């Protein structure tokens, strides 16, 4: 059962994501806030652009029951309340998404890269892929025991480890969670830096310091020679 409460403020369009991994029945309810000034609205339910009827109604709430047997029943279900103003709410029924932000995994040659995928619902199976041009190639740890390890930390958490990193490991990797109603993927970008990469800023700073010290030393030598030359010129004038 999922519910969205509408305040009745003009132009309000609320949304809620509903994760559905396996066949089930879902109740979706639009409820009007008891303090709303919107009275006796005309209520329409839609699945995409198709109008459907609600299965139950109370004074301030309207409910539909959706039977999800396959992926074709997934999608957006909306209720539109019309009165003095119009407000709406939309439920997005979808396969569970893989949690986490898509950000590069950055590590160094010889180290281990770790990628973790997590879902709200436990999938039937996990699969990891590496990108070869435009194709996705499934990773089989048993064929590359010295390179890959896949660990199922729990039913809803899966982990890929890439060992002894080299520049050849740079690229895009994917994890896929398979559910009875479909699958979800998450993208990882792996960047492998050379061991000397962290030293570059330090070397740059040292170089700047050396240049600065050398410039100061040369200036002092030049100043002393100039001062010595001026003294000798004064002595010649006196003579």
UniProtKB/TrEMBL annotation:
Residues passing through the membrane, by range: 202-222
Keywords, in A-Z order: Disulfide bond, Immunoglobulin domain, Membrane, Repeat, Transmembrane, Transmembrane helix
Gene3D superfamilies attached to this UniProt entry: Immunoglobulins (2.60.40.10)
Domain Ig-like: start-end pairs: 21-90, 96-194
Gene Ontology, cellular component aspect: neuron projection
PROSITE patterns: IG_LIKE (PS50835)
PANTHER family associated with the record: CTX-RELATED TYPE I TRANSMEMBRANE PROTEIN, DPR-INTERACTING PROTEIN ETA, ISOFORM B-RELATED
Protein name: EMB protein
Species the sequence originates in: Machaerirhynchus nigripectus
Lineage of producing organism: Eukaryota, Metazoa, Chordata, Craniata, Vertebrata
This protein's encoding gene: Emb
């Amino acid at each position: 059962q999922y519910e969205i409460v509408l305040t009745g403020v003009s132009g309000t369009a609320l949304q809620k994501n509903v994760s559905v991994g396996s066949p089930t029945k879902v109740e979706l309810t639009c409820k009007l806030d008891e303090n709303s000034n919107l009275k006796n609205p005309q209520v329409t339910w839609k699945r995409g652009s198709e109008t459907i009827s609600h299965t139950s109604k109370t004074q301030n709430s309207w409910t539909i029951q959706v039977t999800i047997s396959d992926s074709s029943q997934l999608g957006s279900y909306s209720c539109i309340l019309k009165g003095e103003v119009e407000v709406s709410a939309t439920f997005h029924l979808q396969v569970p998404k893989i949690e986490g932000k898509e950000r590069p995994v950055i590590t160094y040659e010889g180290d281990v890269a770790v990628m973790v995928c997590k879902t709200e619902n436990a999938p039937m199976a996990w699969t990891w892929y590496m990108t070869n041009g435009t194709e996705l190639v499934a990773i089989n740890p048993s064929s590359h025991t010295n390179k890959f390890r896949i660990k199922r930390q729990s039913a809803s958490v899966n982990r890929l480890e890439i060992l002894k990193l080299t520049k050849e490991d740079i690229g895009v990797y994917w994890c896929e969670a398979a559910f009875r109603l479909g699958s979800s993927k998450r993208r990882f970008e792996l960047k492998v830096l050379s061991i000397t990469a962290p030293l570059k800023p330090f070397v740059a700073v040292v170089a700047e310091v050396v240049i600065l010290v050398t410039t100061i030393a040369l200036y002092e030598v030049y100043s002393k020679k100039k001062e010595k030359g001026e003294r000798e010129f004064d002595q010649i004038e006196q003579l």
